[in-house]
TrEMBL record:
Function according to Swiss-Prot or TrEMBL: Participates in both transcription termination and antitermination.
InterPro entries: KH_dom-like_a/b (IPR015946), KH_NusA_2nd (IPR058582), KH_sf_prok-type (IPR009019), NA-bd_OB-fold (IPR012340), NusA_N_sf (IPR036555), S1_domain (IPR003029), TF_NusA (IPR010213), TF_NusA_bacterial (IPR030842)
Subcellular location: Cytoplasm
Keywords for the protein's UniProt record, in alphabetical order: Cytoplasm, RNA-binding, Transcription, Transcription antitermination, Transcription regulation, Transcription termination
Naturally occurring in which organism (per UniProt): Fusobacterium gonidiaformans 3-1-5R
Protein name per the record: Transcription termination/antitermination protein NusA
SUPFAM superfamilies reported in the protein's UniProt record: Nucleic acid-binding proteins, Prokaryotic type KH domain (KH-domain type II), Transcription factor NusA, N-terminal domain
Example GO biological process: DNA-templated transcription termination
Protein family (similarity comment): Belongs to the NusA family.
Superkingdom, natural source: Bacteria
Gene: nusA
Length: 353
């Protein structure tokens, strides 16, 4: 190790502190600890040893640390030193205190900076991972806007958010979306988890949270709290139902959600690739709520069965296909939105039974 190498090492730490926000002192302490572990591995750990990096010139030194005792009390020469011998090292040595004796280990010192560089690289990577985790964790449950950078052979879409690339997997994509490199895209940040490597960042275009957050962005009455979203049910790219409610008596809930000339709801529908959205007024009375949720079908009656989980719905035969929906979609969304099992029957057939 040369003085030039040592100073360059310190300068590199200064740059890291400025650019990455990683404290120079914390890196130096980490390097000292790692070098100490390496020293003990190579030279034995019988002695009490310290590895110190000079903060001014970067020089690496190794010290044996021994407790000063009397000649009569000297028991372990690896850990203790007599007062007489200690005085030869430091005139100020006193009984019960510690003295540091520099160890001549030039071969270890020569490789110390190179080893230190590897340790710093590792610590920088760890710090960057921690920063990425903290940054995205703070935005969990929110909408992120990024740029599509590439699409691989498995249809995974790689999206960049402020220099960090994350993956929109095929399973979290919406069937109505069309992904093109260079386009800006909104996604919902589902969750962020720490791992041994890069943080696991789950983003989605299918999640119901995306629809909920789009309503908050487009409809001021929702973001202000004047209107509350009670529930969301969604089959991404096809159809969704949103139950909304307000305690304010004079507010046009559906009108506020749709907007003048349907502008607000159109922005949401366009963002979701044409996904159809039904807005339903939430009702505390479950029979009334189930009836409203099955719109556009007209419901004759709703009965809650004794199990507390099933709503039996009667409709005219002409309304049955509307109530059930294409491939059962309307009924499925109604069940999801209400949290009930929705059993739809034709009224006349029910009477005959």
């Amino acid at each position: 190790m040369t003085n030039k190498d040592a100073r360059a090492f310190l300068e590199a730490l200064d740059e890291l502190e400025k650019e990455k926000g990683i404290e120079k002192e914390s890196l130096l302490q980490a390097v000292e600890q790692a070098l100490l572990t390496a020293y003990k591995k190579n030279y034995g750990d019988e002695e009490n040893v310290e590895v110190v990096i000079d903060r001014e010139n970067g020089d690496v030194k190794v010290y044996e640390v021994k407790k000063v005792v009397t000649e009569e009390d000297l028991y372990d020469a690896a850990l203790e030193i007599s007062l007489e011998e200690a005085k030869k090292i430091s005139r100020r040595a006193k009984l019960g205190e510690e003295v540091r004796i520099e160890v001549d280990c030039e071969s270890f010192r020569r490789n110390a900076i190179q080893n230190g560089k590897q340790i710093v690289i590792q610590k920088v990577r760890e710090a960057e991972r921690e920063n990425i985790y903290d940054r995205f964790k703070a935005q969990e449950g929110e909408i992120l806007t990024g740029i599509i950078r590439r699409i691989d052979e498995r249809k995974n879409v790689f999206i960049e958010f402020g220099g960090i690339e994350t993956i929109l997997t095929a399973g979290e994509q919406c069937v109505s979306d069309r992904y093109k490199v260079g386009n800006r895209i909104k996604v919902y940040l589902v969750e962020v988890e720490k791992t041994n490597k890069f943080p696991k960042i789950v983003i989605s275009r299918r999640h119901e949270g995306l629809l909920r957050k789009l309503f908050e962005l487009e409809i001021p009455e929702i973001s202000s709290g004047a209107i509350e979203i009670k529930a969301v049910a969604r089959e991404a790219g096809s159809r969704a139902k949103v139950a909304v409610y307000s305690e304010l008596p004079n507010i046009d809930i559906v009108g506020a959600c749709i907007g003048q000339k349907r502008a607000r709801i159109k922005n949401i529908v366009d963002e979701l690739g044409g996904e159809k959205i039904d807005i339903v007024i939430w009702k505390e009375n479950m029979e009334e709520f189930v009836s409203a949720v099955l719109s556009p079908a007209k419901v004759n009656s709703v009965e809650l069965l004794e199990d507390g989980e099933t709503a039996r719905v009667l409709v005219d035969e002409s309304q049955l296909s509307l109530a059930i929906g294409k491939s059962g979609q309307n009924a499925r969304l109604a069940a999801k939105l209400t949290g009930m099992r929705v059993d739809i029957k034709v009224a006349n057939a029910e009477l005959e039974d």
